[in-house]
Design goal:
Elements (H helix, E strand, L loop, with lengths): L1 H16 L8 H14 L14 H14 L1 H4 L24 H4 L3 H10 L15 H11 L17
Helix pairs in contact: 3-7, 6-7
Length: 156
């Protein structure tokens, strides 16, 4: 638990380093989204080996809470994350059509390697393949925005 909080705090500090005073403009956002899409050709056909079961989704939710919620919120939709819209590009809602249209293999690749120049760090070597695949399962079953509360580190 202590290690998870440390990792989350470090992730938040890295993410805050990418913050800026004004939200990115439409052109900046379009350029980054186009760059992401060209990168996502990697692992497009890789299939998630974990079954789509409530147990796998629950394991993914737990791993997501430890490693991803600092930037994406507990619900994957940035709820309670004070800097999400100030990142360049903004932290995407994982429930958005833009994210949900990626294959499971593409999402795993992003979690493994991160996205440069965004604030998304890679986690290869920090998370097991099983943890990553379970996180991918969780992103396919996100709760409604705001229904899961906010990350504890931002609660006042």
């Amino acid at each position: 638990m202590k290690t998870s909080l440390t990792v989350a705090a470090l992730g938040a500090m890295v993410a805050l380093g990418g913050c800026k005073a004004d939200p990115p403009g439409a052109m900046e956002t379009r350029v980054v989204v186009a760059a992401k899409h060209s990168l996502f050709v990697h692992n497009k056909s890789e299939k998630n080996p974990l079954p789509d079961t409530p147990e796998t989704v629950a394991a993914g939710k737990e791993a997501f809470g430890h490693y991803c919620a600092a930037c994406h919120g507990i619900d994957g939709q940035n709820t309670g994350v004070p800097f999400a819209d100030r990142m360049s590009p903004p932290v995407p809602s994982l429930a958005s059509a833009d994210v949900q249209r990626y294959t499971d293999g593409q999402l795993k690749w992003v979690i493994d390697y991160g996205l440069w120049p965004s604030g998304m760090p890679g986690s290869k070597g920090m998370l097991s393949d099983e943890e990553i695949w379970s996180i991918v399962r969780y992103t396919r079953h996100l709760p409604p925005a705001g229904s899961a509360g906010e990350p504890e580190m931002y609660s006042h």
